[in-house]
Amino acid sequence: MVYKKRILDKLLERKLRGCGAVLMEGPKWCGKTTTCEQQAKSALYMTDPEHKSQYLRLAKINIKKLLEGDNPRLIDEWQVAPKFWDAIRYDVDHREGDGFYMLTGSTVPPEIDKNDDEEKEMEHSGTGRIAKLTMRPMSLFESGESNGEISLKALFNGEADELYSENNLDLSRIAYLICRGGWPKATLQSEDIALDRAFEYFDAVANVDASKVDGVQRDSERVKRLMRSYARQQGAQTALSVIREDMLANDSSTLDEDTVNSYIKALKKIFVIEDMHAWNPNLRSKTAIRTSDTRYYVDPSVATAALGLGPQDLINDLETMGLFFETLCVRDLRVYADALDGEVYHYRDKSGLECDAVLHLRNGKYGLIEIKLGGDDLVSAGAETLKELSDKIDTTKMKNPSFLMVLTGTGDFAYRREEDGVFVVPIGCLRD
């Protein structure tokens, strides 16, 4: 398979120069192993069926033998033998230099997950020794659908006053990209075959992975019901009780919130769900800010597959398509944010004022982003929302936003509005 360069490549290289080891986490099939292989000098594949039992025995007896090999050494699916964590941490502590190991994992180890305090202790024990990266399915720039002519880095640096780019993505193509998702293999396949990838992923999660993550047997049909309900809540701060009621409509047995929460937690542990935290800025007036997380899948194709939807279904229901388009944009913004040392948040206050995405960098710079599928009226509404929020921010206590952006699906080109300075950028023009 042809390797498509990932945005995370440079970040991985940087982390290897500064830490003894790097842990690369993310959903399966998103390209973690292939990305690490580009920089590895040796590799150990813990799930290799011919050698797995032998590796597991050796991990119990003498795990140091499994660490032998040229550096950087890739330990793929390390969580199969959680002792790797302490072994690598110890080895890194007693060696001069950096960049010895890369660990990839699609799940959190069951032994660690049994106790939240143990998980926190594990993360703390790796501080300064093991850097952590999260890989997601491909952004549109990585898969080649975005021309990448509008750079978020340039916007943050104030270098985009003459911003302009032509958009090559139309509504039907956006619908296809939502359903295909950013799964690397799917980006190399013909369209009819590529659309199967998300359905295969959905089935694997429901039938195998949701139980495999911690050894707790879960009803596959109930997992599917939860995933369908979650798909309907994309971009919303939906309470657990609402998801439970939605599931009960098709569940004849009893179902309490603790059970629903355990299923959601399992999906988070295998990186299927990635909710968005709330942003809490300094405001000019005292306004109650909603702190609930916003519900999102790691990729929009998981949501469409859960509901059995294809591209034409989305085109026939543009309101639903708009919700899943938002998930696609959030996925891409998260990929780009990682490259910029930033995070993506959501804002909502008691007055109902809401901002879809706030891209906040480590240096304190931030950009406010509204996501709209397209259309002049929606773009204007998004711009008004951005200006209203921007006017509420207390700039004596924090910086002015670096930019205000309406991120769209359709539209012929990217430009800056003369009346208010808001950038209007199609997702097919954006990059980190």
Mean pLDDT value: 92
Number of domains: 2
Radius of gyration: 22 Å
Class by alpha and beta content: alpha/beta
- Poorly predicted spans: 111-124
The helix count comes to 18
Spatial shape:
globular
Largest sheet: 7 strands, mixed
Query: Strand order across the biggest sheet?
Result: 7-12-13-11-10-9-8
Give the total of beta strands: 14
Helix content: 40-55%
Précis, in short:
The protein has helices at about 10-20, 30-35, 50-60, 85-95, 110-115, 115-125, 140-145, 150-155, 170-180, 190-195, 195-210, 220-230, 240-250, 255-270, 300-305, 310-315, 320-340, 375-390, and strands spanning about 20-25, 40-45, 75, 100-105, 130-135, 150, 165, 340-350, 355-360, 365-370, 405-410, 415, 425, 430. The protein is α/β, with parallel strands linked by helices.
